[in-house]
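Worked problem 6 (solution included).
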Amino acid sequence: MSVEIPPQENRADPVFAGRIDVLYALGRHYLSLPFAILCVPATLIAGHTASILPLMPLLLQLAVVIAAEQLTTAYKNRPRDGGTKFSDPRFWARRYTFVSAISGATWGVASLFWFVWDSFPAQAYLALAFLGMTATEFIARSAYRPAYLVHTVFALGPLVGLLLWQGGLYADCAAILCVLFACVLVSYCAGMARLLDESLQLRNENGQLIIRLQREKGDAIHARDAAEASAHAKSAFIANISHELRTPLNALLGMAQLLERAEMPKQQSDHVRVMLQAGRGLQTLIDDVIALTRDDIDQLEDEDCDPAQAARSVTRLLQPRAWEKHLRLTLSAPSGLPRVAADPRKVRQALLKLTDNALKFTERGLVEIRLEETDDGRSVRFCVTDTGLGVPEEISHLLFRPFTPGDSSYARKEQGAGLGLAVAKRVIEQAGGKIDFTSKPGEGAQFFFTLPVSGTATGAVRGDEGQFAAPAGLTLLLFTRIPAVADTVANLLEPFGNHVVRAGSMAEAAERAGKESFDAIITGAGEVDMLAASPGVKAPLLAVLLRGDRAPAATDLVLRWPLEAAQLYRALAEINQREGADGNGEIAAAIDPVFFSTLEKSVGVKTLVEILQCYIVTAEQLTNALAQACGDEKWVEAGRLAQDITGAAGGLGLTAIAQAARDFAHMARECENRHELCNAAQIVVGEHIRARQALIHLYPDVA
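Solution. The predicted structure is:
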């Protein structure tokens, strides 16, 4: 299909039409009348003969002015749509040129009436008036040179002829001056027209640009609405597919776990184990894909996290895997770390991905999780360091992209999909943090991320990590202004033999807390400071924070609503531990039976026994090395060994030796008393022996 290209003049029509608009808009035909009126008295005075003839040109010019104004009105009311001659700018240009010619002709005729013979002053005055009129008409008619040209020729032509006919030096010079003046103004018309064309082109381009921007804005708004609708549809699809995939997969994994514990021949047992491992890998892949495709920024339930507690939870979860690969997984977290402004689930998820990657790509040595506060005090830095192969430079830029697992051969060996680091990056950036890594090929890698410090006060807010048995035999004072909170706390504690005393008012709570003895006081965030300041209150304070509350400074522990049983039981267990250690002198348990029961259900008795055997061998080496370092007074090395013991024991729920090793590491950094350090080292060795005996008693196959 051929396209007809319009001629050049048609493409210039918008500019030409704009010039005709200017021509009609600036036309002020009545401005020439004052010049004509001034010519009449000068003619009468110079001619010395009173006559009505000099007034006749005024009537003609007045008629022309009226006609020109009518033409301007007709132009303004012309039809705008195309197809008729009245919408053609050339039609109106010709009309304006004709009226200009008539207007100029009236001045030419007037010169015959106003010209005074043999009086050069009158002739000079007349030439000056005509030139002033011509300059005035130039302002409007310069937009269209033909209109100005015909007006000037018809207006000045008769006057120039009369001056030349008169003859004489001054008359001839005046005629030449009029011609020169007219030629100069006519020559300026081309420049004025060019400037008008440029300005009109810019105006038209701006108009087109505005129209295009409005159209693009409408398209962008439409695209945004479509994207939002697509995002909503995606979220709904992700939610549905998550449920539809996870529900049957969890059932399959549950059945596979039951089959694994059943008595079956070895061949069938191996088949079940392969099926269980494949199912768990598929479950991890589904979780990672959903985490990458789902936008759940607005679905976070908590915005405050204890970084040390999150790291301990990850260490406990991955410690069995570290023992399986004969690796040391350690945790180093100084006391008094500020809380971070992030959901605990997201922090654990990101740290779990990094640590799991470190264990996956490390064949020997250790994996260390280290937490520290940044120099400016505005964020907490999480570091995961390994002694693996490191990251080659040629793939370093691909690490945080989805489905780019780095070395393909090793990825196939580890059955990785390349989503772990991408998920971690997304989670951290959603929380307002930054993630990066450093590595030297062959010397390991360090992955780290930072999270901003929470605006709430620092307090020991405990999450729902781990399983804790419900406390029994406690006497607790409960006061909160929210009935739902009070009912939930009471329902979680009273069935297990705890005596919960409810206070109906702040005054009653303060009075009973000062006079009676309670194991703990559970109250709201707004009431903690008042109870802490009440006389006679000695019981630990446990605050329950609603969304938006800030953690008070006077509380011992903080819980966030909605409250879960594991959170409450953990908090009460920690309070009882503190009170028992400080007041009653009770010896902490060597092992945590609840933790080992959960671990046994998770990995099975056989695998757990193998893990414990590896732990005992490693713990023997670490404690012997600790004793040797203390004998040589190498306190820095001894502190490092104590940290390794803390990570190894804490990951298996061996709280007594973990606490003893943690205390020694703290003393090694701050204490210079050799005898106190040696005594603390003896306590660590003794707790190791006690933990080993307890493990052998609980699992005889460990020996």
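Discussion: The chain is about 65% helix and 10% strand.
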